[in-house]
Specification:
Elements lengths: L3 E2 L5 H10 L6 H10 L14 H10 E2 L4 E7 L6 E6 L5 E9 L2 E5 L3 E3 L14 E4 L2 H15 L5 E4 L9 H11 L12 E5 L3 H10 L4 E5 L5 H7 L8 H15 L3 E7 L7 H11 L4 E7 L13 H12 L4 E4 L13 H11 L2
Parallel strand pairs: 1-2, 6-9, 9-10, 10-11, 11-12, 12-13, 13-14
Antiparallel strand pairs: 3-4, 4-5, 5-6, 7-8
Bound molecules: S-adenosyl-L-homocysteine (SAH).
S-adenosyl-L-homocysteine binds next to strand 10 and strand 12.
Length: about 350
């Protein structure tokens, strides 16, 4: 029998479960606190429950936890990259970053990814599996434990496509922002998607307070198709319609991510097309100098080209930032650490 993943339950589900096993309702808040505030990893540690109840829970449920395989710490700015292993042997990557406005954690939402973006290391070996809500929480909880620091911002920008693991990601967002748990404001959570249009619309209808970031990376469908296979399914105009709808429903400003690849999408003409496309949308454009991976021969645009691209876009009265590179000394593109670890395990 598969055990119940108790950490993925919200308070209501937990309370129903507690009642269903013949226990008093008030046990719910006790157990929820142990899981999400004290963040214990065994029922034994829940010392205000009777032995009998602890045993009963242990028989029926499991508490997920991650094993830390490797931590790389930047000497420049304290950024930490974590490699975690899951009980089934899958490996995931998360990153802890210190900013003046607080600590931010970048989490993975899937082990691997099936979106196939050409410049991304996370997708090279395809999708292994979706992460459970509890496993995404564990990325945060493990990092809070290791650093001893509070986390105030979360970005869903690690391995995986959040909207390809829709139900679990929504559950995770609700749990991590729950006032009975870690209580991270939804306004401080950014969900980044390659643009799965129907799920952007579903997300809009939920009216959560999260920020939506959309990986655009091109200003016409042909160029976008070269970089992102998902562009064969949804056009840029469908994406723009969906983000406008998201803004209407939530009032949240959209972020567009645009990775600059030398000779592919970094010319002034491209900046003009991008400006024309997104003007009039309440948005912010985040330019990301592409982080080259060894499996592909994409090159980063030069500093000058990036600056010119930014200046040109700003003429459209668009707020444009260039993503600051954190932890340059431990840098590697998203998913590269995981990938090199897996290769070493397979060919030691
Ligand atoms: N699946 C989500 C999250 C991916 S990672 C998405 O597509 O948005 C977050 C951002 O980093 C995305 O914009 C992604 O396209 C970008 N990215 C991935 N690998 C990169 C690389 N090597 N260089 C620059 N940006 C990269």
């Amino acid at each position: 029998m598969n055990k119940i993943d108790i950490k993925s339950m919200d308070i209501k589900e937990l309370s129903e479960f507690i009642e269903s096993i013949g226990e008093k309702k008030f046990r719910t808040t006790q157990i929820y606190k142990w899981l999400h505030i004290k963040q214990v990893i065994s029922f034994e540690e829940m010392t205000d429950l009777s032995n009998g109840l602890r045993e009963k829970l242990n028989e029926k449920c499991c508490i997920t936890s991650l094993n830390t395989v490797k931590v790389l710490t930047s000497k420049e700015d304290g950024t930490k990259k974590y490699l975690f292993s899951l009980p089934d042997g899958n490996i995931i990557e998360s990153v802890f970053m210190r900013y003046h406005h607080g600590n931010s954690v970048c989490i993975s939402t899937q082990a691997g990814c099936r979106m196939g973006c050409r410049f991304c290391a996370s997708t090279l070996d395809g999708l292994e599996r979706n992460l459970l809500p509890s496993e995404m929480l564990d990325e945060i909880y493990s990092i809070m434990k290791d650093t001893g620091e509070r986390v105030s911002n979360i970005v869903l920008m690690g391995s995986g496509e959040p909207l390809d693991n829709y139900e679990n990601v929504i559950k995770f967002i609700k749990l991590i922002s729950d006032e009975n748990g870690v209580n991270i404001s939804q306004r401080n959570i950014t969900l980044s998607t390659c643009g799965i249009v129907p799920n952007i619309i579903k997300l809009a209808d939920l009216k959560l307070g999260v920020t939506l970031a959309v990986s655009l990376h091109a200003s016409d469908d042909e160029t976008r198709k070269e970089l992102m296979p998902i562009a064969n399914k949804y056009s840029i105009s469908e994406i723009l319609e969906a983000v406008k709808y998201f803004f209407e429903k939530t009032g949240r400003r959209i972020t567009f991510e645009y990775s600059l690849v030398a000779g592919v999408n970094d010319t002034i003409e491209e900046a003009t097309k991008l400006g024309e496309l997104v003007r009039g949308i309440n948005c912010h454009v985040n330019l990301i100098p592409v982080n080259p991976i060894k499996e592909r021969n994409y090159r980063q645009s030069g500093k000058d080209a990036i600056k010119k691209f930014q200046n040109h876009l700003e003429k459209y009265k668009i707020n444009v930032t260039i993503r600051r590179e954190m932890g340059r000394d431990i840098n590697g593109a998203c998913g590269q650490l995981r990938k090199s670890f897996m290769e070493n395990v397979q060919n030691p």
